[in-house]
Write a structure and sequence with these properties.
alpha+beta, Alpha-Beta Plaits, 3 domains, six-stranded mixed β-sheet, 8 strands, 11% strand
Amino acid sequence: MVYRLMEGIFRSRADPIQASGDGHALAGDLAEDPRRELLASISSFILQHDLAVNAENLAAACSAFSGAAPWLARSIAARAQAGEPITGSWLKAQHTGEASQREREAPFRLAEELDRSLRAFVRNSGSARNVTTKLGLELGRHVDQLDEIHPAVATSSLAALVEEMAERTRWAEMQLRESEKEAEELRLRLDRARTDAERDHLTGLPNRRAFEFVFKRQYEEAKTAREALSVAFCDVDRFKDINDRHGHDAGDRILKFIAETLSRISDNNCHVARHGGEEFVVLFRGYGLDEAADKLNGAREELAARKLVNRHTDEPIGQISFSAGLADVWRYPGRQEALRAADDALLCAKRSGRNRVIIAEAGTQ
């Protein structure tokens, strides 16, 4: 029903697919092949609303028109009926919002599956234990009666009991193996879910949640080892202007590019994460404050040396830079205070003209 409603709203009067060749013959082909109909609907939707042909818009349109995301389809249909514009940024926000909802629900679904798996494992373990106990009692009873039973009868009875024991044991082992297999599959899914929950899907970097875990661990280890530890906030300069002028797709590509640049300075003692929006956070362990500032400046200069172009419009984006604030963690009572100091230094870098690294309480580098 939703698909038909959207089909009526979005199919262009001058459908570029239908406009080529024999319209009647093509309509017949569409009716015979659902894939053609889906592709026609997607392309018509993209062109009608002048959307960029990129992975995000195509994925959202496919989800809506294929029936995979009926909630998204209803949102698009309602917006179109209201006469409101359907832009790439709006579509992405709706599609991402739906994905985020699924991600929020995923742990609950996994928890339910884990509960079912554990209950099945307990049930199968209990069955196996009961089988073993019962057969052990029967075997003991037969042994006690051996002197009272004719040898041939005793041998036959014992053989039957052993055969039954072997069969029930095989059944119990099969049930346990099945439970172990399900538990292992669930463990792998939980590991993947944990990884996904700690990964920023746009840049591929660890997210804020993952960084907080790493920061806590590195803080304790560096404190015990008496090693240097510093933290920095990096923020893209004039990112809102870039988004407003070149669009959110270009903004996303710039964030990915900056993430790649910062990733090149990371190692076992330098951890980079996306903290949120256009802000990144870097943790340096074992580096002196000046060394950490040098590494940040190297990434900043590498980035500023590049001249980027909007791939859709060929319009120059120009120089992209970031400002950063760096703080020595051990100068502050705790981790949160060090983060606030780095954030204050970042603000100072912004006010001082941007495209620079400032050390908290230590001036410009």
